[in-house]
Design brief:
Dihydrodipicolinate Reductase, domain 2; nine-stranded mixed sheet; about 35% helix; Rossmann fold; single chain; 20 strands; about 400 residues; seven-stranded parallel sheet; alpha/beta
């Protein structure tokens, strides 16, 4: 398989390092608006990797690179602003498309904290019939969350439960970053987008609806010694993906942000610094959100200052296959010290990047196949979870005491 990765940030760089270490793919083209960054991302990866300059907002330019390098699949490793241009270019070129974040949402114009407007992925799903008609695959949301979390949901539905009450993705960590009072471990642009948009919840009979930002706080106890972390509702793709393929009464996503992180985000919002609309400052126009991003450290460069564990997982409640109440948490943990030692990548970006690598492996081997615009939960989970173990980064699950038991 010949792969084009667009975006040489933290996740794109981790993809290159990991694919090189695992000896995968015939050829990997790494493209970025800053060709120097693309070149740095593939340093030491070997002659199967090449760097290219690319304006991902220009569909014709993306198609040209796809066709010029004869790639079979495109991985979009950019922030969600560029989803549709890359998605459309892959369709025009007739190749497989993967991303880790779906097309952007737009809040309801008059009632944003009760009713959804344009939902995450709506623009992509609107084109599903055309992709299916052409026999092309767009595998969307195949990072860690969404991605591995959706695979966990499918595995639980297929093998652990006869009926499901709630599927709740729960993300938490005990990561610390030395020397910074505020330094997100992932793209601040994406963090602001998902944390300050109205969170979406799905309930059977009610479908999708929105709530207040940081709503429904709960204490969730994470495994591997991380312990209890307060988690709150955040807008995320799993809530838009899982109900399309898995029968459950409720689907949620909650993130362990912490009071300090929430307070900083709330302040950024109050000041209007999360806005993507350019404002004039002197003789230039600049987006406030881009200014915030420019003031913060690059998440890809924080690995040597980070310590601790990050945990991504899916909590499922309902009736087990034996007819009794059941509650489980399926999860994957990465120790930052390990990911830095093995792949020179900090834990959060590496945990994201390794999932599309494995998806591409499965598509290349034929263990996964499909047409249209789909999420990971539409595909068989067994080959994916087996490959996760085979790569030495195993997944786990733990039984929990069902509420009221």
């Amino acid at each position: 398989m010949r792969v084009l990765v667009i975006g040489a940030g933290g996740v794109g760089t981790a993809f290159a390092k990991t694919a090189a270490s695992w000896g995968l793919f015939e050829f990997v083209a790494m493209a970025d608006y800053d060709v120097g960054r693309a070149q740095r991302a593939i340093t030491g990866a070997g002659d199967r990797f090449a760097a290219f300059q690319l304006d991902a907002s220009n569909e014709e330019e993306v198609v040209g690179l796809i066709e010029g390098q004869r790639v079979d699949a495109v991985l979009n490793a950019l922030d969600p602003r560029f989803v549709m241009s890359v998605f459309n270019a892959a369709f025009a070129a007739g190749v497989t498309y993967l991303d880790m974040a779906m097309s952007l949402s737009r809040p309801h114009p008059t009632d944003p904290y009760r009713l959804p407007g344009v939902k995450l992925g709506d623009e992509q799903f609107a084109q599903a019939a055309q992709w299916e008609e052409r026999g092309l695959l767009a595998l969307c949301g195949i990072g860690v969350e969404p991605g591995l979390s959706d695979v966990f949901a499918r595995h639980a539905a297929d093998n652990m439960f006869s009926s499901i009450d709630e599927i709740g993705v729960r993300d938490g960590s005990d990561l610390e970053i030395e020397g910074y009072e505020f330094a997100p471990s992932f793209s601040i642009w994406t963090t602001l987008e998902e944390c300050l948009n109205p969170p979406v919840v799905w309930e059977k009979g009610k479908e999708w609806f929105t709530t207040d930002c940081f709503s429904e706080p709960e204490i969730f106890t994470f495994p591997a010694g991380i312990g209890p972390v307060e988690c709150v509702n955040v807008e995320h793709e799993e809530v838009l993906l899982i109900p399309r393929w898995i029968d459950a009464n409720r689907v949620t996503f909650k993130y362990g942000l912490g009071d300090e992180f929430i307070n900083v985000l709330a302040t950024i919002h109050k000041l209007g610094l999360d806005s993507t609309t350019p404002i004039r400052v002197g003789d230039v126009e600049v987006s406030p959100r881009d200014v915030v991003a420019g003031c913060l450290p690059d998440p890809a460069q924080l690995g040597d200052r980070m310590s601790g564990l990050t945990c991504a997982g899916t909590w499922v409640t309902g009736t087990g296959t034996d007819g009794r109440p059941r509650e489980v948490y399926l999860y994957h943990v990465v120790d930052n010290a390990w990911s830095m030692s093995e792949f020179d990548s900090q834990a959060v970006v590496w945990q994201t990047a390794m999932n599309p690598i494995m998806a591409l492996e499965l598509l290349d081997s034929g263990s996964w196949a499909g047409h249209g615009v789909i999420g990971p939960e539409a595909l068989p989970p067994g080959p994916y979870l087996d490959l996760l173990n085979a790569h030495g980064t195993p997944w786990y699950f733990e039984e929990r005491t069902p509420t009221g038991a």
